[in-house]
């Protein structure tokens, strides 16, 4: 009998403005993940689970986060948001870049999560900024943060500078839509229990139904070389 518990994907957006490019990136990553999860289940026929997607706006919880930091007691809304993150099957974490790092609001929220609560949870890390010069924040700040929290970050991280919106890339660089689809596909594969590698671009997630290769098969192919 197939499992009926839905697959839960939670995106955390630390954007402050309204509308927010950070929220927009979170929405697009969540949509790409949902699409891939649904397609993979249909293709394999091994599962038939609904996909639930939720986006948590930290700007709405900013006062509650500050109060919890000084009092040690979360509000009901903040407690529910923390539970949603820790109980999710897959997590998307998106922050604006402030002073060459993640925002204080983003860090404060994850400071409230027990350091073992995300153990083994697949995560896509993403960030937005005004210039591409800050893209290394993903590797220098966000990836170490989630390594400390014992989460499993997927190979592809997504940075969106102002000029990336509406750009399809060029012969040297993938456009933002392609990077979003690839990251969403990797998160979907991780949620479904398969290990993926970002090493091979010959078969990308935009290249068809055989794009995701199980890690065991990649090892076998390497042994044949």
Structure at a glance:
Helix content is 41%, strand content 17%.
Give structural notes:
With 225 residues, the chain is an alpha/beta fold. It contains seven helices and seven strands, in the order E-H-E-H-H-E-E-H-E-H-E-E-H-H. It has helices at residues 21-44, 62-71, 76-87, 104-111, 137-148, 176-191, 215-224, and strands at residues 7-13, 51-57, 90-98, 101-102, 122-129, 152-153, 158-161. Strands 1, 2, 3, 4, 5, 6 and 7 form a seven-stranded mixed β-sheet that branches. Strand 1 (7-13), helix 1 (21-44) and strand 2 form a beta-alpha-beta unit. The radius of gyration is 18 Å and the shape is globular. The N and C termini lie far apart (41 Å).
Give the H and E element order.
EHEHHEEHEHEEHH
Structural class: alpha/beta
Radius of gyration: 18 Å
- Average pLDDT taken over every residue: 84
Query: Approximately how much beta-strand content do the residues carry?
Result: 15-25%
Number of strands: 7
Overall shape: globular
Ranges with pLDDT <50 over ≥5 residues? 195-225
N- to C-terminal separation?
41 Å
- Most strands sheet: 7 strands, mixed
Q: How much helix, percentage-wise, in residues? A: 40-55%
Number of helices: 7
């Amino acid at each position: 009998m197939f499992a009926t518990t839905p697959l839960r994907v939670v995106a955390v957006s630390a954007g402050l403005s309204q509308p927010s490019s950070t929220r927009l990136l979170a929405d697009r990553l969540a949509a790409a993940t949902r699409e891939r999860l649904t397609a993979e289940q249909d293709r394999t026929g091994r599962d038939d689970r609904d996909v639930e997607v939720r986006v948590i706006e930290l700007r709405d919880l900013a006062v509650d986060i500050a109060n919890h930091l000084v009092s040690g007691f979360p509000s009901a809304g903040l407690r529910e948001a923390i539970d949603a993150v820790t109980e999710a099957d897959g997590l998307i974490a998106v922050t604006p870049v402030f002073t060459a790092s993640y925002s204080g609001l983003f860090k404060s929220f994850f400071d409230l999560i027990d350091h073992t609560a995300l153990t083994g949870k697949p995560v896509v890390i993403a960030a937005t900024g005004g210039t591409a010069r800050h893209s290394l924040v993903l590797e220098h700040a966000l990836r170490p943060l989630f390594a400390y929290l014992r989460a499993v970050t997927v190979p592809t991280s997504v940075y969106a500078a102002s000029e990336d919106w509406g750009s399809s890339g060029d012969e040297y660089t993938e456009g933002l839509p392609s990077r979003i689809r690839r990251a969403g596909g990797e998160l979907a594969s991780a949620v479904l229990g398969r290990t993926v590698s970002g090493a091979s671009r010959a078969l990308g997630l935009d290249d068809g139904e055989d794009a995701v290769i199980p890690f065991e098969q990649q090892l076998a192919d390497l042994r044949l070389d």
